Amino acid sequence: MGIVINQSFKNTITTYLGFGLGAINTLFLYTEFMSDNYYGLVAYILSTANIMMPLMAFGVHNTVIKFYSTFKTKNSLNSFLTLMLFLPLALTIPIGLVGFLSYDTIASWLTHKNNIVGDYLWYIFITALAMAYFEVFFAWVKVQMKTVFGNVMKEVFHRVGIMILLFALYFEWITVEQFLTGLVSVYVLRTLLMLVNAFYIRLPVFRFNKIDKLSSILKYSSLIIIAGSIATMILDIDKFMLNNYIDIEKVAYYSVATFIATVIAVPQRAMHQIMMPLTAKFINDNNREELNDLYERSSLTLYIISGYIFLLIVLNINELYTIIPEEFSGGIIVVFLISIAKLYDNLLGNNNAILFNSDYYRMVLVFGVILAISAVVLNIILIPLYGINGSALATLIAVVVYNTIKVVFVKMKFNMLPFTMQTLKISVLLIICVLAFYFWEFPFNAYMNIFFKSIIVGIVYAVLIYKLNVSEDITAMFKKYLRLKK
């Protein structure tokens, strides 16, 4: 776990920096500098681009990680990497042609509720393409066990760029149309910088020789397209579907609420960057002992860290919503529901990495199809009944079912579970902290209340985690960074 903890710690810092900047953008700058209609449009563009991204990437970002360590000669490896660079074009070019020839039909379908969307469909395509190739180049460096720069680009760069654009919009240096063009340009520039970094670490040597595992590679990529699309779709299908049922400004309200809850996913996002290639290596080497150890340790570490973030969000949510504009306050229930879903995601540790890099990756597709259908059906039923709260409830139910199926499957095929008695201790601790602190408020302004409560909760939680010694890795970090005696 040494390399995992080391790079995950660095990635966690940069990811939190990115989310901090994102919080400023999402909670304050967007809400003050941009109309609700255009804010909803931005959320829709980015969400739809995220849904399209795995399709545009042709699953290459996962394929590189799974197969890279299986090639033992330079020629075979160079041929494999050459294929990975050009394979996404097999889908992006046809998708672009279909979009060009059927633009009016697609626009008519997507704009029956909100006409503003129709003029910006190409923005979605370009952003999705940039996101796709960014992930390809990021995977290029992940397999070299170098993830820190890529994580900075993934989490920080575009948020800084958007912040600059928002201030330029506020001071009327640019129009809202120019802002939207600039938004797309930020994602394109991020991809180009990631390309430079990837080729600096390993310069491509183009080889078009026959690849022995070509059939397996293409089969894996094709299935992972769908599996990855489904996994990504679950994160953004709610915003996409809300556009068809409610006014687009309410998509902005939902986007703010989900962003707050998504902060819980930061540790998983940070650790995922290094866990994917490491898990693939253990599976390719048939090292079940190390794989099981990584499964349990990653679950505990992520649960402890994400549990603390969960507490900070849930215990401060009422005060936080007094700070941002009042019309956004209808998203409090959304925050609770999505927070629980994200906490469960973290509890699974490297479960996704095991499934995606094992011979059972086809089952991810089966599970994903079940999840996607469930999510769509639940959204169709619950959005008309409960609005944005219904969409959040649909997401929670779908995620709980999906994650539980994955845990049971890994147990059946690998005889491994991420849960231990320490998991139960952490769960009890989280429940006690919520009951003890939720109704307790300081008689100050919202900022001071959040600050003091966060400090107190943090100290109590950290002391109890250390005293209970629920994780060797977390305890070791306490001793290392706080100079605690053994």
Automatic annotation (TrEMBL):
Pfam families named among the record's database cross-references: Polysacc_synt (PF01943)
The keyword Hydrolase appears for this protein: no
Coiled coil start-end: none
Membrane topology listed for this record: Multi-pass membrane protein
Localization, UniProt: Cell membrane
Keyword Cell membrane: yes
Primary subcellular site in the record, as a coarse category: membrane
Keywords associated with the record: Cell membrane, Membrane, Transmembrane, Transmembrane helix
Domain of life: Bacteria
TM region positions: 12-31, 37-60, 80-100, 120-141, 156-175, 187-205, 217-235, 251-267, 300-317, 323-344, 364-386, 392-410, 422-440, 446-466
Protein name: Polysaccharide biosynthesis C-terminal domain-containing protein
